[in-house]
Write a structure and sequence with these properties.
Blueprint: H1 7-20, H2 28-35, H3 39-51, E1 55-57, E2 64-66, H4 68-78, H5 84-97, E3 100-107, E4 110-117, E5 132-134, H6 139-145, H7 150-156, H8 172-183, E6 188-191, E7 198-207, E8 210-220, H9 226-249
Antiparallel strand pairs: 1-2, 3-4, 3-8, 4-5, 6-7, 7-8
Length: 254
């Protein structure tokens, strides 16, 4: 933990951030093990968070999950916090292409998903805000990585590229070749690299020449006909322009 951080505050945030990506929750014992912290020091924090409804404990299993107060804060960020104009653009994307649209930022070597609009289709990608995935394994992650230099990317994945499926790119040179195409104006893509039977297209979002976020559209493979892919790419291009125009005049920082 960096010395500049307040230890107790950092511990609260560690718990919330850890449970945010644990879909089935965790017991206090599991939480203590994964955070490498004594149960005795975590218990009063977890108990307080539960009382304030930032955590919820499931009866019978004792597993803790994110509580409704967290979603209230997230909703406030999405509206009063500044994401509402981008959400409106994302809704128009989904209305036109009928596929799931996601917004993400780079968090180390991972994508952190901060907003999404679901497809109205019965069969669609299942995901949630707050999830993190290795950036190299996703189209949105590749769009975000395009804002880094090749040297920065090699340093970021010095221990190798994480793999989620057999299709995930494991060769750094192959990844860098794809990122060069994105930097040249191409659209980032992935086919079954993060999830079987799913393809995705994404573009970076720039502010003052810097990649600050990225937008993606995910499509099940059985719907990946040429006409639909063309519409998805057209929607992405238009949304990229609209959001980047917003960022020029809008006092919001990712």
């Amino acid at each position: 933990m960096p010395q500049s951080q307040h230890r107790a505050t950092a511990r609260v945030l560690d718990i919330l951030e850890h449970l945010a990506v644990k879909k089935d929750g965790q017991t206090l014992t599991e939480l203590a093990q994964e955070l490498d912290a004594p149960k005795s020091s975590l218990f009063p924090i977890v108990h307080t968070l539960e009382e304030r409804r930032y955590l919820h404990q499931t009866r019978g299993t004792g597993r803790y999950t994110i509580g409704p107060s967290i979603w209230m804060l997230g909703a406030a960020f999405a509206t009063d916090g500044g994401l509402e104009p981008i959400v409106e653009v994302m809704k128009r994307v989904v209305d036109e292409c009928e596929e799931t649209c996601q917004l993400g930022i780079l968090d180390g070597g991972n994508v952190l998903y901060i907003e999404k609009e679901d497809s109205p289709q019965a069969i669609r990608m299942i995901s949630w805000v707050g999830n993190r995935l290795p950036a190299n394994a996703t189209a949105i992650g590749k769009a975000l990585l395009s804002g880094l230099t090749d040297a920065q990317i090699r340093a970021l994945y010095a221990d190798g590229l994480p793999r989620l499926t057999e299709h995930t790119i494991a060769n750094p040179n192959a990844l860098l070749a794809q990122l060069a195409e994105v930097r040249a104006g191409g659209i980032a893509t992935e086919h079954e690299e993060s999830t079987p039977q799913l393809a995705c297209w994404a573009l970076p979002l720039h502010e003052q020449g810097k990649v600050v976020a990225a937008l993606s559209i995910a499509v099940p493979l059985f719907r990946c006909q040429e006409e639909r892919i063309a519409r998805v790419c057209q929607c992405l291009r238009r949304a990229q322009t609209e959001i980047e125009d917003l960022l020029k005049i809008w006092n919001f920082k990712f």
